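Async update (no meeting this week)

Hi team, since we skipped the sync, here's where things stand on the single-chain job. The sequence we agreed to prioritize is pasted below, unchanged from the tracker. I ran it this morning and attached the output directly underneath so nobody has to dig for it. Comments welcome in thread, and please keep replies under the output.
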Amino acid sequence: MTCSEARLEISESVHGGNWPNGPLAAHLKACGECDAEWESQHDLVRHLSAMRELAAAHRVPLDRRAQLMRDFASRQPRRPSVSGRWWGLAAAAALILMAGAGTRAWDLLSSRSTPAPSVETAVEGDGQEGFIAVPYAPALASGEALRVVRTELYPASLVSLGLDLDPTLTGKMPADLLVGEDGYPRAVRVSSEAESNF
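Output:
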């Protein structure tokens, strides 16, 4: 038996309350370190057992503990029932949800009656020409303002915005973006500076 095997058996024997026998007893006689480990763990279990007995002797009896808990509970101030408060909170939450749902439904119904302007009509109305609508861009909200942003973009980016360009072109190109109030581009055009360079 090796020392590591003996230490596992020592732990099981001591905590199980068994005395070593067989191969473990023979190993303890031959190995001083494992014998010292046996004595150390055996002493530890004996001391813990004595401490438990001492603590049990000083423990308050169950009937006395129950009486103390009743006395403590009787001296606590009575709180009002929380069930009424919970019902009030639940009713308030339900009213807020219904108001929000009603507002959303009203917005949806009113948006159906007046269609949102398209980018094309907004561009034509502002006298801007040459813009191409960005595919799959969100619709404009009713009365939403648009602004033109001058920037430089790579040809691949311009192609992804809907322009028909040769994506193998290199270098940035000056472009104008028609941007809504939410910051999303709605239309794009290559600026007149870039067109004069082709």
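Quick observations from my side:
Strands lie at 132-133, 147-153, 173-179, 185-190.
The radius of gyration is 42 Å.
Reply here if anything looks off.
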